[in-house]
Amino acid sequence: MARHHVVWTIGIFAQVAFAFAATAQAATWDMTADKRFDPTNKAYPIKQNQVVVDLTRDGSLCPTGLGHLASGCDTVNEIHILYKADAATEQWLQITWNPGGSGTEQFEVFCNDKSVGKSKLVDGAKAPYQDQAEVFWIATVTGRNTVVLKRLGGDGLRFSRLALADEKVADAPAAEGGDSSQKMKPTLKYPTLASFEKAIGQPAVLLDSDHVMLLAPKSREAAARIVFPYLVRAYDELYKIVGVHTKYKIVVYTFPKGHPEATGGTSLCTIRYDDSNLDLETSQEWTRYKVPHVSGFIEEMAHNFVDATGVQFGWEMVGWSIGVKATQKVAPNPIFARSLAQTRKTQADTFRRYKAAANTFPADIESNLCDRIHAFLLWQAELRYGPEFWPDFFNQVRDARATFAEANKAGGDENRNARYRVTVACFDKLPKLDFKKILSDNGISLTTDVKSLRPTDAGWNRKLQ
Predict the structure, then answer these.
(1) Which is it for the CA torsion 228, 232, 237, 239, positive or negative?
(2) What are the DSSP calls for 363-410, one per residue?
(3) What does the alpha-carbon distance between residue 54 and residue 81 come to, in Å, rounded to a whole number?
(4) Which pLDDT value is given to residue 26?
(5) Looking at residues 131-142, what average pLDDT do you find?
(6) pLDDT confidence of residue 205
(7) Which of 88-92, 132-136, 208-212, 308-312 has the highest mean pLDDT?
(8) How far apart (Å, rounded) are the C-alpha atoms in residues 302 and 324?
(9) What is the predicted pLDDT for the residue at 167?
């Protein structure tokens, strides 16, 4: 099954925000199927290290990769793919590539002059000729469109698939961190439609994909079908940042309001909300901007990605931060933007008061909100470092897998503190940040996680070290 293939269990709802068909559809274009790839890498013109592939013309050929591809020919730094669309839509750009045998390879994708993401950074010497599966969400406009693949580094990566389609043209190779179809948590309480229906005492709907499953009362089916594709896309955006899959498939329960198990939050890849977020007609994000309110779901999903890596910092502020990034990608709207701006303003104000009190958390703010300080410092680090802050951090985290695994062997507070120390070291490896100095200058421990300071206990000195 294709990774984004969605199983509709009950009925048909036509007015969904994104179309996820039940069977694979033909690609809008496919360089292999359309015989556009030039195996010689000499039959297309290269001008200023750019190749234009005009899919509206017969005979316009595409390079088989980026970089130095053929002896005696110029290096290909950019491939511009021109095509026409009958209507505005959103589709998956699917690229399978390998880094060759040397060089650190990476490319960036643009659609109509807007960046839609970067590929993984892959060292050909460490992963010679190993296929990498990449999927990018492309917003097509009516009429003429341009997709650009821009080389960022390396000496010659190669494509084996380059296609634009509503779904994957074929199953992609397994990506780093897990296979393409995740296992369910063995102790999942309601793994089937029947078990969930029994729990809520009414008919239900189950929507499923390779990485995310949503169960909801059947009375909320129409809204569930709108919300679910956003969650599928959010998982992919979070995976692009983290590079590691969650431990199990994400299962989202939306219990009827008032149900005792609608506790909110997440635990080991299970999210338990009530169905308020499926009441679209009372949501201004939906009624005004036709974007469902999904930031809460996405934040809980993000915490599960962080948990899979072993990262520990600022209570839950790493998960909150990357959840924001994913929501900005898949469900941006002015209401969410205003809410985020207000949250950042509150964090900044709390930090100002914390510094004015000689690195002491304000006494009139609930102690369980002390990680506002961590959130503010992470945001400042991101602004200073640039847009690759989180992907680069998680590159360091993946490189430290063995160290995290060793830290995870400890028990009690030392488990958390050991993982915190590894996390701080990963941040500190990012160039030009001097992250440990940032923490020291702002009264934050380099060795002890904030949870281990027991800030919610009576008698806490309201210090972070």
Answers:
(1) positive
(2) TTS-GGGTTHHHHHHHHHHHHHH-TTHHHHHHHHHHHTHHHHHHHTTS
(3) 6
(4) 54
(5) 86
(6) 94
(7) 308-312
(8) 9
(9) 58
Confidence bin at 181 (pLDDT 50/70/90): low
- pLDDT above 60 (res 23): no
Helix, strand, coil percent values for the chain (each to nearest 5) = 35, 25, 45
Report helix, strand or coil for 268: coil
Beta-ladder partners of 89? 140
Contacts 24+ apart (CB under 8 A), 115-119: 117/240, 118/152, 118/388, 118/391, 119/95
- Spatial separation of the C-alpha atoms in residues 264 and 215, rounded to whole Å: 15
Return the closest-CA partner of residue 120 out of 173, 49, 183, 48: 173
- Residue 230 carries which side chain, given as an amino acid letter? Y
Q: What confidence category does residue 5 fall into, taking pLDDT thresholds of 50, 70 and 90?
A: very low
Residue 86: CB atoms within 10 Å: 8
Dump pLDDT digits (tens) for 258-311: 999 998 889 889 999 999 999 999 999 999 999 999 999 999 999 999 999 999
* C-alpha separations of 68 from 42, 103, 122, 177, 316 in Å: 11, 11, 17, 30, 44
Whether residue 69 has pLDDT greater than 70: yes
Locate all alpha helices (DSSP H) within 276-371, ordered by sequence.
284-289, 295-309, 317-330, 334-356
Residue-wise burial string across 256-279, b where 16 or more C-beta atoms lie within 10 A, e elsewhere: beebeebeeebeebbbbbbbebbe
Residue indicated by tokens 């969930």: 196
Give CA–CA dist 279/254, Å, rounded.
11
Question: Cα dihedral angle (415, 420, 423, 424), rounded to 10 degrees?
Answer: -150
Distance separating alpha carbons of residues 425 and 419, to the nearest angstrom: 10
Fill in the DSSP letter of residue 357.
Answer: T
Alpha-carbon distance of 24 to 148, in angstroms, equals: 25
Count of CA atoms in the C-beta half-sphere (13 A) of 50: 10
User: What are 360's two structure tokens?
Assistant: 């002491």
Mean pLDDT across 169-191: 59
Yes or no: say if 222 and 281 are a contact pair by the CB < 8 Å rule. Answer: no
More confident residue, 168 or 188: 188
- Whether 12 has a pLDDT exceeding 50, the answer reads no
The contacts of residue 100 (CB under 8 Å, 6+ apart) are 124, 128, 129, 154, 155, 156, 157, 158
Looking at residue 331, its amino acid is: A
